[in-house]
Each structure stands twice: as structure tokens, then as C-alpha cells.
From TrEMBL:
<dbReference type="GO" id="GO:0016887">
    <property type="term" value="F:ATP hydrolysis activity"/>
</dbReference>
<dbReference type="InterPro" id="IPR003439">
    <property type="entry name" value="ABC_transporter-like_ATP-bd"/>
</dbReference>
<keyword id="KW-0813">Transport</keyword>
<dbReference type="InterPro" id="IPR003593">
    <property type="entry name" value="AAA+_ATPase"/>
</dbReference>
<dbReference type="InterPro" id="IPR027417">
    <property type="entry name" value="P-loop_NTPase"/>
</dbReference>
<dbReference type="GO" id="GO:0005524">
    <property type="term" value="F:ATP binding"/>
</dbReference>
<dbReference type="Pfam" id="PF00005">
    <property type="entry name" value="ABC_tran"/>
</dbReference>
<keyword id="KW-0547">Nucleotide-binding</keyword>
<keyword id="KW-0067">ATP-binding</keyword>
<feature type="domain" description="ABC transporter">
    <location>
        <begin position="11"/>
        <end position="241"/>
    </location>
</feature>
<protein>
    <submittedName>
        <fullName>ABC-2 type transport system ATP-binding protein</fullName>
    </submittedName>
</protein>
<dbReference type="InterPro" id="IPR051782">
    <property type="entry name" value="ABC_Transporter_VariousFunc"/>
</dbReference>
Length: 256
């Protein structure tokens, strides 16, 4: 689907194509994410969401197309694009033997942050995320939600302009989820943009002001949440857009 260029899009994707062997994961995918938005990326299993996110952060090398992050081409100005981006992947990629404090500071080092700035911000993030009491224990002993919070702290430390979150609230308790939402609001009020991929339609509907629906490696619908919903539930819009029908489960009568 052709997407008109936006004047100030912190994320601009054009004609992104990716094959894994004979499986096409992305099929000329184009997308513009408006500045300051919370953009929900939704789509059925295997539709290409993770491949898109991984292409944006340089973990997947696309076969064609282009990605610009805050004006930096991911293919030719990888460092510039990386500096502007923070990411929480699913599954998470953490160093299990490090403590959260060591991990987040290591990420700060890799981002070229001054030690003092890095440790001051890390402490503030740990306090806000209610992780401070466990920040000196190895990550290998953390619960899933604690790992998510550690990954979020590492993603925010260098104050990126674009934050990519794959299933950010999965496994996170309601109190921490509320804190995370208020952190995202604060991040956006400072000019940051969030792209959030999730299967939880109620959450996307509540948090995101813009949505892109990916199906079979293409963006099949995009717009503001209100434009797409037009008074309906996002879940119903999603099912319509991807043309899903309920699977026949009658052959599973042995389950009953
Ligand atoms: N490393 C890989 N090797 C082979 N095929 C892959 C690889 N990564 C993704 N794919 C395939 O590419 C397609 C898109 O996968 P992707 O993980 O991007 O989907 P997704 O929308 O994130 O799915 P989900 O919602 O289930 O996480 C799928 O058919 C998947 O099997």
C-alpha cells in the first residue's frame, strides 16, 4: 500500500522486502509514523511485525526498500539511526549474568554516555520502575516482568527519539504497567515517538493514537485510531481488515 510522505516522520519505511528462503516475510511494506505519536503495529501471527521491527534496528537485513529513522537511513547511516532509536524486543535480549544495574550501564557505555549521567539516569529509571531493590541481583534470577522493565530502562537511558516496543506490557503487573504508561507519556511530551507492537487490542486501542495493520508482509490499513475504528472495537476492525474467519474446531471433539 502506498503511503504519502509526511513532513516530519521519525520513522519512514518504503517498499521494505524480506525473504527467508522461499518465504516472503515483507512484501513492499511502506509506513510513515507521525512525530510524537504512539503508533500501534498490529497484525496476525506471522504477518511481519517482528521482521519490520528487527529491520528498523538493523538485526534483519532487508532484501529491498529503505528505512529512515529521524532522517538517518538505516542502511547507509546505521550509527545515526541507532543513536536515535531505543528498542525492547520480544523475546528479550539481555545479558543474564549481569545485574540490571550492570546491564543498563553497559548499554549506556555502548551508547557513549558519560558514566555519571548513565548511573544517575539508571537509578531514576529503576526507582520509577520499582526495580531498585533488585537492581544489584543477576538478571538470571528475574521474573519475566522484571526483565521487561530492565529492557525498558536500557532502551530509554540514552533518550532516544524513537522507541520501539514489542509486546511491552506482557508479564508486567498492573502497577508497573501504569508506571510504564506514564513514562511513555512523559517521553512523548518531550518529543519522543513510540511504536508499539502488540496482540492485545484493548491495550492498543487505549494507548495508541495511530495504528498500522500488517497482513502478509504489507500494511493493509493505517490511520488514526479514530479513523480506523469509527466507533467500533479495534478487535472487530482488525478481524475485518485481515479477513479472518473462525477456525473449524469440530474435529477436536475428543478435547471435550
Ligand atoms: N529467522 C527466520 N527464518 C525463517 N523464517 C522467518 C524468520 N523470521 C521470521 N520468519 C517468517 O517470516 C514471517 C513473518 O514473521 P514475523 O516474526 O515477522 O511475524 P510477526 O507478525 O511478528 O508474528 P507474531 O505475531 O507471531 O510474533 C513468518 O512467516 C515467519 O515464519
Amino acid at each position: 500500500m502506498w503511503a504519502p510522505p509526511l513532513a516530519d516522520a521519525p520513522l519512514r519505511i518504503r517498499g521494505l522486502t524480506k525473504w527467508f528462503g522461499d518465504k516472503q516475510a515483507l512484501d513492499e511494506l511502506s509506513l510513515d509514523v507521525p512525530a510524537g505519536s504512539c503508533f500501534g503495529l498490529v497484525g496476525p501471527n506471522g504477518s511481519g511485525k517482528s521482521t519490520t521491527v528487527r529491520s528498523i534496528v538493523g538485526l534483519v537485513r532487508p532484501d529491498g526498500g529503505s528505512i529512515e529513522v529521524c532522517g538517518h537511513d538505516v542502511g547507509t547511516d546505521t550509527q545515526g539511526a541507532r543513536a536515535a532509536t531505543g528498542v525492547v524486543l520480544d523475546p528479550l535480549q539481555l545479558f543474564e549474568r549481569l545485574t540490571a544495574r550492570e546491564f543498563v550501564r553497559t548499554m549506556g557505555d555502548l551508547r557513549g554516555l558519560d558514566d555519571e549521567v548513565s548511573s544517575g539516569r539508571a537509578d531514576q529509571l529503576f526507582v520509577a520502575l520499582q526495580l531498585i531493590d533488585d537492581a544489584d541481583r543477576p538478571i538470571s534470577g528475574y521474573s519475566h516482568g522484571m526483565r521487561k522493565k530492565t529492557a525498558l530502562a536500557a532502551a530509554l537511558l540514552h533518550r532516544p527519539r524513537l522507541l520501539l516496543l514489542d509486546e511491552p506490557f506482557e508479564g508486567v503487573d498492573p502497577v508497573s504497567a501504569r508506571t510504564m504508561r506514564s513514562m511513555l507519556d512523559r517521553f512523548r511530551s518531550g518529543g519522543g515517538t513510540v511504536v508499539l507492537s502488540s496482540h492485545v487490542m484493548d491495550l492498543v486501542e487505549r494507548l495508541c493514537d495511530h495504528i498500522g495493520v500488517i497482513h502478509q508482509g504489507r500494511v493493509v490499513a493505517t490511520g488514526t485510531t479514530e479513523e480506523l475504528r469509527r466507533g467500533r472495537r479495534l478487535e472487530d476492525v482488525f478481524i475485518d481488515v485481515v479477513g479472518a474467519t473462525d477456525s473449524d474446531t469440530t474435529s477436536l471433539d475428543w478435547l471435550g
